[in-house]
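can u pls check wat happens w/ FE2/S2 (inorganic) cluster
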Amino acid sequence: MTFKFTEENLARIDKARKKYPTALAAVMDTVYIAQEQNGYISTEVMEEIANVLGIDKVNVLSVVTFYTMYHTKPMGKYHVQVCTNVSCMLRGAYELWDRVKNKLGIDNMQVTADGKFSLEEVECMGACGYAPMISVNEDYYENLTKEKVEEILESLI
Ligand code: FES
């Protein structure tokens, strides 16, 4: 399926592009806008990003596959990311990970049957001082306990 940016998003990309000395430097902003519009970054979306910025497709692919905030397949309405890197791990991240997995009934990179939740184990999300933490879409939840995680998930079900 062909992907085209909306006129509004093309204007946003143009504005983002002007913040940087090169088109390549605007790739993260552009991928972010694409994901907002499409929900995930398919091959067709990557091709259109490369086309709009006038850069090579491999540059888009390398960014999309490096950062955990970008998805190459449809994820749930609520995408839950659990950090299990060192600071979070030392403060109980794997207990949170098990709690979330059991509560949602899915494993890493899976989506619930109703499409409401998806789950991803991630590396450091830059909130080590508030470990352990999870994110739901773009919201961070920090200094968590198993009980707090339970409350967060219950509020979304
Ligand atoms: S180790 Fe979890 S946010 Fe840094």
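Residues 83, 85-88, 124-128, 131, 133 surround FE2/S2 (inorganic) cluster (CB under 6 Å).
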